[in-house]
Amino acid sequence: MNDREFGKRPENGRPRRSDNNGERSSGTGSGRGGYDKRQDAPSGRAERTSGGVESRPDWQNRVARPFNPDKPKSPPIPDEITEKDLELGLRVQLKTLTPENAEKVARHLAMVGLLIEQDPDLAHRHALAAAERAGRIAMVREVVGVTAYTVGDYALGLRELLTHRRISGSNDELPIIVDCERGLGRPERALEVGRSVDRNSLPVSVRVNLAIALSGARLDQNENELALAELQIPELNPAKVFDYSPPLFRAYADTLEILGRNEEAKRWFDLADRAELALAGNPGPEDEVFQVLEEIEIPVLSERKPWEPSNDSDRPRNFEPRNPRRDDERQTRSFSRDSDRQPRSFGPDSGRKSGGFGSGSNRGQGDSRGKGGFGGGRPGGARGR
């Protein structure tokens, strides 16, 4: 019986693999002794570029924020300020953040409450720093909007307060929204926004602030009689005095003065002064209270100087250990706070109690003839033109 060629076995007992020409392929196969092309394939973790450097996956490039070297740094916070300086009800709203992030945001918000009257610009920077870390929390967006309005950035204030309104469903900052529209030169839009909400559904202090803001919008359109009518609300009652009464009385007196009714205006100005004295309690020398103030140093970031080459590069340099406190000495300035009083708070409930931001607050209700109140002319400033 003749042996078949395909039945022959090699001397080592293993079948030979051959290519189409009958010769064994030793360089391109994927079996034993051959060259496995899979070793040149990219790993499952990341693809390699032509330069041999691992590139980021596409989904990371889509969601990552672009690096901005010109982005301003967050303002430093004194070590004395802790998250407990922020009201507990507001700290609870930060519970969706990580503990470390919530602590940082709370400290920035505490600085806003301490600085909003002494240094509004620095308070606004702290509010922006808090928004960088907690931009999806309604209360944080409210703080940014209020501080932006305080420093005169009405476009940013309007955007942030509309976002707060959309997230929270609250109309507590509607008077400032109306005033921001006025600040942008849109009194018609301000009246439209103010009329879009039922006034009976608003807290009393918010309703009074809204009436003052709408009166200012009428003055912007030279509708002086209608501006006076906007202020003729049930809260305009000289027989009963509340926290909102002095700014309402002054706005009404100022509008009467614009209309040329000086005698009536003088009467309402006097009523506003008397209302302030009644609310303050008019303490005498025997009732004088001394407050202990705590002085806190506020660190300020030093300006970064651009690098310049030295002219005497040939001279050898003496290297010394770096002393950060000496090389990058920080400028400091101080402010005071009451040691037995919590910083100004934010939110819908805190304003009625402590005079902070939110529903029921008297913020922005200062003298309508001066700085800091809703009224005509320009938002937050003097009424009339």
Tell me how many strands there are.
2
Helix content range: 40-55%
Oligomer: single chain
Radius of gyration, taken over Cα atoms and rounded to an integer in Å:
35 Å
N-to-C order of helices and strands: HHHHHHHHHHHHEHEH
Roughly how many Å apart are the termini?
123 Å
Q: Beta-sheet strand percentage? A: under 5%
Low-pLDDT segments: 313-332, 338-373
The geometry reads as: globular
| Number of helical segments with 4 or more residues | 14
Average pLDDT: 75
Secondary-structure-derived class: mainly alpha
Largest β-sheet summary: 2 strands, antiparallel
Order of strands in the sheet with most strands = 1-2
Describe the structure.
With about 375 residues, the protein is mostly helical. The chain has helices at about 60-65, 90, 100-115, 120-135, 140-150, 155-170, 175-185, 185-195, 205-220, 225-230, 245-260, 260-280, 325, 350-355, and strands at about 295-300, 330-340. Strands 1-2 form a two-stranded antiparallel sheet. Residues about 315-330 and about 340-375 have low confidence and may be disordered.
